[in-house]
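Kindly review this protein for my students:
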Amino acid sequence: MSAPLRHDDDARDAGALEWCAGPVAPRDAPPTLEALRARIEAIDAQLVALVAERQRIAALVGEVKRASEQPVLDLAREAAVLRRVTECARAEQLDEEDARELWRKLLAMARRVQAEPGASR
């Protein structure tokens, strides 16, 4: 699987963590549309796998909550998650509202699976 394009100079200048591996694309040879789309497709597959893993863990969280008689909805926790996501989005120069919107959907998915007894099996 090929690594995402990176701009090491920008990342180092911003003090950001190294977020990808692989060679930097030469500045005089732009990647082809097909190569860029292939990289996006690879990232999409990774994202789907990560969301699936997140859902499996959320199902386990639901089991723990049921065993300890805690409600599925935890507004304080969700607010903390959204604050953290906003900070991460800002650090990555992503639109903060877009990131929050995406995470609101992930949180809703997690609540749904947490409410399903036996979802982790």
The CA atoms of residues 21 and 84 lie 24 Å apart. Residues 12-114 form a domain with the Chorismate Mutase Domain, subunit A fold (CATH 1.20.59.10). Residues 33-67 form the longest helix (35 residues). The mean pLDDT is 85.
